[in-house]
């Protein structure tokens, strides 16, 4: 057909709006978005014609293009992905998944008015922190607690409250960077505290702290080196020694414990990570940790310790800018409730369950997924093999969790190409490449997503 004829035959928007397919979309999508998608679709066909890319088209083709475009527009930018990488606390993929009670609590609280800052006993203004403070005190053994936006904010608040224009003494071995954006020295600068670095990268002694204490010292700070280990000729001052020194000199000891596990993982065969309860028991004045790492809750920063210090923080104006929102608070409360019984926590908090679930369980699950995949596609080879999952999130950096994974091989795609294709799936599947092999680690995959993965491979077969 002639170009000019093809152009003339392009349907008008008004005309397309009368099509049942389009009209039906108006039930669920705003009219402006539908009209815009129609216009863009027609424009696209006009360009195709002008650049001699097509010689004919039907109205059905145009409607199909329109529906594809609309679906793209309607899908959220922020959406579900499948973590097949086997990194449990994957910071890029949203860290910890919420447990059931946490989810339910969020929905109940935000779908209704709530007592966020209302004291129902007294019938007057209340504190948003009250909803979790008792629970945190109970599970950690601390005298007082409060929560802010994240652990970076918690560290900043503590230093700003206790150490503004004063000196914070910290070991050179603990000046850590976490995830590229959190650097202890930078956070300290923002807080107004002056950093006094002591010792060396690998060795710091008690006398290093003692020798640097003066009338302007605000805190003794200990940062848990959560994402790396220094091995070999090393020496670090124990918390006990630091607490004793702080007590003698009347200087608060602050610990950023990072991941903040409430469970002693050494009971389950892992190397011992310091727990929050241990730090409190040892007499540390203030401890901060994250809500969405080993705790397995929402993004939050938890500050616990001596009541006099926590009260000061609650009064600090900075708290207003760092404050936690109601959805997070609801999720945190729901998560913390499980910790009243450790078995419940391990069973129900996804992060904990994933870390502690057994290799034998994942062997069975990997076999099930492999079967599904083999049933769906012909041009891939799937192999069950032993491998390791990682905790991630800068937690337990040296811990390798034995597991079973599926290796996927294809003649058609290189590992890199396959990784990309799976990532571009409608529900993105994020795998890991190790030793130039595509690996699917079932530890971080839900059974309910096995079919989605099989479908994703099916489209590539
Ligand atoms: C992860 C981490 C932080 C930052 O915590 P966020 O909750 O991500 O803000 C701070 N300190 C340490 C030691 C950490 O491991």
Automatic annotation (TrEMBL):
Chain positions found as N6-(pyridoxal phosphate)lysine: 293
| Listed Pfam families | Se-cys_synth_N (PF12390), SelA (PF03841)
| Every L-seryl-tRNA selenium transferase N-terminal domain range | 7-46
Single GO MF descriptor: L-seryl-tRNA(Sec) selenium transferase activity
Q: Alphabetically list the UniProt keywords.
A: Cytoplasm, Protein biosynthesis, Pyridoxal phosphate, Selenium, Transferase
The keyword Transferase belongs to this UniProt entry's keyword annotation:
yes
Which cofactors?
pyridoxal 5'-phosphate
Biological pathway: Aminoacyl-tRNA biosynthesis; selenocysteinyl-tRNA(Sec) biosynthesis; selenocysteinyl-tRNA(Sec) from L-seryl-tRNA(Sec) (bacterial route): step 1/1
Q: Which InterPro entries match?
A: SelA-like (IPR018319), SelA_trans (IPR004534), SelA_trans_N_dom (IPR025862)
Give GO terms for biological process. conversion of seryl-tRNAsec to selenocys-tRNAsec; selenocysteine incorporation
Instruction: Return the EC number.
Output: 2.9.1.1
Q: What class of enzyme is it?
A: transferase
Under catalytic activity, the entry for this protein gives:
L-seryl-tRNA(Sec) + selenophosphate + H(+) = L-selenocysteinyl-tRNA(Sec) + phosphate
Reading the lineage from the top rank, the first entry is: Bacteria
Question: Where does this protein reside within or beyond the cell?
Answer: Cytoplasm
Gene Ontology, cellular component aspect? cytoplasm
Q: Do you know which HAMAP family this protein is assigned to?
A: SelA
Summary of the function given for this chain in its UniProt record: Converts seryl-tRNA(Sec) to selenocysteinyl-tRNA(Sec) required for selenoprotein biosynthesis.
Record-stated family: Belongs to the SelA family.
Stated name of the protein = L-seryl-tRNA(Sec) selenium transferase
Source species? Clostridium thailandense
Its lineage opens with:
Bacteria, Bacillati, Bacillota, Clostridia, Eubacteriales
GN (gene name): selA
């Amino acid at each position: 057909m002639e170009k000019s004829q093809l152009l003339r035959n392009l349907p008008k928007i008004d005309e397309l709006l009368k099509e049942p397919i389009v009209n039906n979309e108006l039930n669920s999508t705003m009219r402006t978005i539908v009209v815009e998608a129609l216009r863009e679709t027609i424009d696209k066909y006009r360009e195709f014609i002008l650049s001699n890319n097509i010689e004919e088209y039907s109205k059905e083709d145009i409607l199909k293009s329109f529906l594809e475009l609309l679906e793209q527009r309607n899908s959220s930018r922020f959406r579900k992905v499948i973590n097949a990488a086997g990194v449990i606390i994957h910071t890029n993929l949203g860290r910890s998944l919420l447990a059931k009670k946490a989810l339910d609590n969020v929905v109940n609280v935000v779908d209704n008015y709530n007592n966020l800052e209302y004291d129902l006993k007294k019938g007057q203004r209340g504190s948003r922190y009250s909803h979790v403070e008792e629970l945190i005190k109970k599970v950690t053994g601390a005298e007082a607690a409060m929560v802010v936006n994240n652990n970076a904010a918690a560290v900043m608040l503590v230093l700003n409250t206790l150490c503004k224009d004063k000196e914070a003494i910290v070991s050179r071995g603990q000046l850590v960077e976490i995830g590229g954006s959190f650097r202890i020295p930078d956070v300290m600068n923002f807080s107004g505290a002056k950093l006094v670095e002591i010792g060396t990268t690998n060795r710091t002694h008690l006398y290093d702290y003692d020798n640097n204490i003066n009338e302007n010292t605000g805190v003794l700070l200990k940062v848990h080196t959560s994402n790396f280990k220094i091995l070999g000729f090393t020496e670090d001052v124990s918390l006990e020694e630091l607490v004793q020194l702080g007590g003698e000199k009347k200087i608060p000891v602050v610990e950023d414990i990072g991941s903040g596990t409430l469970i002693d993982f050494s009971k389950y065969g892992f190397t011992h990570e310091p727990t929050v309860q241990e730090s409190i028991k040892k007499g540390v004045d203030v401890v901060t940790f994250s809500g969405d790492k080993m705790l397995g809750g929402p993004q939050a920063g938890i500050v616990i310790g001596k009541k006099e210090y926590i009260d000061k923080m609650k009064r600090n104006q900075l708290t207003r800018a760092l404050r936690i929102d109601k959805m997070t608070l609801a999720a945190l409360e729901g998560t913390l409730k499980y910790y009243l019984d450790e078995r419940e926590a391990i069973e129900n908090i996804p992060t904990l369950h994933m870390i502690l679930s057994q290799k034998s369980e994942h062997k069975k699950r990997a076999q099930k997924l492999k079967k599904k995949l083999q049933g769906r596609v012909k041009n891939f080879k799937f192999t069950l093999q032993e491998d390791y999952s990682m905790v991630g999130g800068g937690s337990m950096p040296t811990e390798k969790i034995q597991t079973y994974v599926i290796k996927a091989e294809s003649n058609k795609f290189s590992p890199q190409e396959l990784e990309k294709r799976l990532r571009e799936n409608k529900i993105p599947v994020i795998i890991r490449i190790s030793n130039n092999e595509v690996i699917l680690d079932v530890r971080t995959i839900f059974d309910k997503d096995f079919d989605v993965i099989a479908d994703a491979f099916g489209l590539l077969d």
